[in-house]
Amino acid sequence: MPSSVIDTISYDQSNAILKIRFQSGSVYEYMDVKKETYDAMRAAFSKGTFFNRHIKDKYEFSRIE
C-alpha cells in the first residue's frame, strides 16, 4: 500500500544503513539498523506507522537531502 508519509526505502546491508525518502522530498539515513527491521518495514501494511513505532527516535540518523 502506498504511504502518505514515506516515498521510498532502501537498505545498505554492508553498512546497516536504512535510507528513507519521505513524500516531502527529505532523505534520511538511519544507522545500525538490522536487516530484519528493514524487512519488517517493507512488509508492514503502514510504513508510516512502522516508522513511528520502530525507527523514529530509536536510531542515530542524518539528513542527506
Give the CA-based shape. globular
On the 0-100 scale, what is the average pLDDT?
95
Number of domains: 1
Largest sheet: 4 strands, antiparallel
Order of SSEs, N→C? EEEHHE
- The structural class is alpha+beta
Strand content: 25-35%
Taking all Cα atoms into account, the compactness measure Rg is 11 Å
Strand order, largest beta sheet: 1-2-3-4
What is the first-to-last residue Cα distance? Answer: 25 Å
How much helix is in the residues?
A: 25-40%
- Counting DSSP H or I runs of 4 or more residues, the number of helices is 2
Model regions low in confidence, pLDDT < 50 over at least 5 residues: none
Number of β-strand runs: 4
Summarize the topology.
Layout: E1 6-12, E2 17-22, E3 27-30, H1 35-43, H2 47-54, E4 61-63
Antiparallel strand pairs: 1-2, 2-3, 3-4
